[in-house]
Design a protein that fits this description.
Elements (H helix, E strand, L loop, with lengths): L1 E8 L5 H13 L2 E8 L27 H17 L3 E5 L6 H10 L3 E5 L14 H9 L4 E4 L8 E5 L4 H13 L7 E8 L9 H11 L3 E7 L2 H9 L5 E6 L6 H6 L2 H8 L4 E4 L2
Parallel strand pairs: 1-2, 1-4, 2-3, 4-5, 6-7, 6-9, 7-8, 9-10
Antiparallel strand pairs: 5-10
Protein name: Nucleotide-binding universal stress protein, UspA family
Length: about 270
């Protein structure tokens, strides 16, 4: 049995995140922990893009407990309706992010609503707080849109890095039940004749975990064409590394993952070492 976190901020309940957890529970029973976070004050926050790791964002003192109470009730009723074992954590400490980081330390997986999580924080996708959550999480994260089809195939984004390999291993360990789906290990480069880095090694590893494995090399700029290629895959989940702990915000903004997340079409699995 896995322990899975759902994190909701004040006023933004993600049905998509819950739906992903519900589908996982149908495959194998889980313990689902709802973490209910307060609003945060961004007025004095350091910019993560400029190396603000360890930034503490204070909560807004006049948060509305009745809103959180309604969210908790929705969560509890949905868990009971779908026969999911659950817990509720809603301690309002001085800072929201350290509490979420601590929660992920004691969990197998965190699921966040890619459209809902602190959606009031600017128009940028993903917003700064979502990027910080990815940076600080001490377990793998799934970003779930509000409307999606549960994964029928896997896309393993591989760039030859240790982070990409770690993400592939983490996904296969967490979700052996999804490893039987059609899986594409994809390497994309804007070079004229790209070659997949360390091909014998990654093929040996991936083939042990994914029975229906295809390897594909795209001779195209991933920032421009990756999402177009991805649209041809049936109901995928995208698996990728999170570019390490330093500079994640800046790198994430430049990544094709930003485009995929912003399209709100499919779930994305992200983890770091």
């Amino acid at each position: 049995m896995k322990k899975i976190l759902l994190a909701f901020d004040d006023g933004h309940y993600s049905n998509g995140a819950f739906e992903f957890a519900r589908r996982l529970n149908e495959i194998e029973p889980i313990l689902l922990t709802g973490v209910f976070l307060p609003q945060v004050d961004f007025t004095g926050a350091l910019n993560y893009a400029n190396g603000g790791a360890g930034t503490f964002l204070p909560i807004i003192e006049d948060y509305y407990p009745d809103i959180i109470a309604r969210q908790v009730k929705m969560f509890e009723e949905a868990c009971v309706r779908h026969q999911i074992e659950f817990r509720v954590h809603k301690d309002h400490l001085d800072f929201a992010m350290p509490e979420l980081r601590k929660e992920t330390r004691f969990a197998d997986l965190l699921i966040l609503g890619s459209e809902k999580f602190y959606s009031n924080i600017g128009a940028e996708i993903p917003n700064e707080y979502l990027r910080m959550a990815l940076h600080e999480a001490e377990c793998p994260v799934i970003l779930a849109p509000e409307d999606f089809n549960f994964p029928a195939s896997n896309v393993l984004a591989y760039d030859g890095s240790a982070d990409a390999v770690y993400a592939i291993k983490s996904f296969s360990s967490l979700f052996p039940e999804l490893c039987g789906n059609s899986t594409t290990l994809v390497y994309s480069s804007n070079k004229s004749n790209p070659e997949m880095p360390d091909l014998p090694y990654i093929q040996e590893l991936a083939a042990r975990h994914f029975a229906d494995l295809n390897l594909e090399v795209l001779a195209a700029d991933p920032g421009k064409y990756f999402e177009t290629w991805l649209n041809e895959i049936k109901d995928p989940i995208l698996v990728c590394g999170s570019f390490g702990r330093s500079g994640i915000s800046r790198t994430f903004k430049q990544s094709f993952v930003t485009q995929v997340t912003g399209s709100h079409r499919l779930p994305v699995f992200i983890t770091h070492r």
